[in-house]
Specification:
Number of helices: 6
Radius of gyration: 20 Å
Number of strands: 5
Order of helices and strands: HHHHEEEEHEH
Distance between the termini: 42 Å
Bound molecules: zinc ion
Structural class: alpha+beta
CATH superfamily of the largest domain: Winged helix-like DNA-binding domain superfamily/Winged helix DNA-binding domain
Strand content: 5-15%
Number of domains: 2
Helix content: 25-40%
CATH architecture of the largest domain: Orthogonal Bundle
Shape: globular
CATH class of the largest domain: Mainly Alpha
Oligomer: single chain
CATH topology of the largest domain: Arc Repressor Mutant, subunit A
Largest sheet: 3 strands, mixed
Length: 187
């Protein structure tokens, strides 16, 4: 039996996106729009480029401000509509870290990753999803399903918060003993 413990590396989504990647994404987006009888307008091009250059998770509002900051007049509705198109096209992905606000990240040209969210400080940790992708393919194959994507979020406490938390709430390596759940924080 091989060691089945996961060896997950923490990664950052923020990889430098080079012009070539942006160019390929643009071609993809242009074709996507053309197939649907939509035009590759200046606004859509600027939105795509702006989204591709953000190296963190972003809200629609941030894109709006960035585009306007570059001196381009753009409406809020256009930003939301274009983001929807970018998501449908597979260049941008929606991520839901809370119930409050949808975040986005550009996934084109990036390695697949999933997220861990700290309930206490809100820190978001990204990790390599290749093992999850393998598991996804296995589960899907067993159920004769063709998987295209998945959404996985691990919610808990980050290392710093575990240290800062009172004893008893700390996540210890499993000892096999049941842990009391009564002290779990309720928000
Ligand atoms: Zn991410
Ligand atoms: Zn934390």
């Amino acid at each position: 039996m091989e060691d089945s413990r996961p060896r997950l590396s923490l990664i950052r989504m923020a990889q430098a996106v080079n012009d070539e990647t942006i160019q390929t994404a643009e071609n993809l987006f242009r074709e996507y729009l053309r197939d649907r009888g939509l035009k590759y307008t200046d606004e859509r091009r600027i939105m795509l480029r702006t989204a591709m250059r953000v190296d963190e998770h972003f809200e629609a509002e941030q894109i709006l401000l960035a585009v306007r900051g570059a001196g381009i007049r753009i409406g809020k509705a256009t930003v939301y509509r274009t983001l929807k198109l970018l998501v449908a096209c597979g260049i941008v992905k929606e991520v839901h870290f809370s119930n409050k606000q949808v975040h986005y990240e550009h996934t084109y040209g990036q390695d697949p990753h999933d997220h861990m969210i700290c309930r206490r400080c809100g820190r978001i940790i990204e990790f390599d999803a290749s093992q999850v992708v393998r598991l996804r393919a296995q589960i899907a194959a067993e159920l004769r399903f063709h998987a295209l994507s998945h959404r996985l979020q691990i919610v808990g406490l980050c290392e710093a918060c575990v240290k800062a938390c009172p004893v008893g709430m700390q996540a210890r390596p499993s000892t096999g003993r049941p842990r009391r759940a009564s002290k779990a924080r309720r928000k």
